[in-house]
Write a structure and sequence with these properties.
111 residues; alpha+beta; three-stranded antiparallel beta sheet; 3 helices; 3 strands
Length: 111
């Protein structure tokens, strides 16, 4: 594996990932962005806590009001989150369920 030092960068460089295979991992052991065109691959290793914080910040900054694609993303994110919460211990699940019920802004959720 070749390593390159990208910093300090003299100019801004953009990598267009359209029609490329992009893979992102943010588990607790290894976070990375991998971009491949089939014969070449760029692997960027990122601190897991930084990656997770950036993802949370980006979700909070997204405007879901006018974009059906973003609404679908939010719904899928919520479903995946519920699936992960259901794998937690009962006390942790109860804490998160209570937080959700107490903080969701709708008249349909019964407290």
């Amino acid at each position: 594996m070749n390593s390159i030092n990208l910093f300090p960068v003299e100019t801004l460089q953009t990598l267009d990932t359209n029609k490329k295979n992009v893979r992102v991992s943010i588990d607790s052991y290894n976070s990375y962005v991998k971009i491949s065109d089939g014969s070449n691959e760029l692997n960027i290793i990122i601190d897991s806590e930084i990656m997770q914080a950036e993802i949370l910040k980006n979700v909070l900054n997204m405007n879901f009001e006018y974009s059906e694609a973003k609404k679908r993303f939010l719904k899928q994110l919520f479903k995946n989150t519920v699936e992960q919460v259901n794998r937690l211990k009962d006390t942790e699940k109860e804490e998160l369920a209570t937080y959700f019920v107490n903080n969701i802004n709708t008249s349909e959720v019964k407290k």
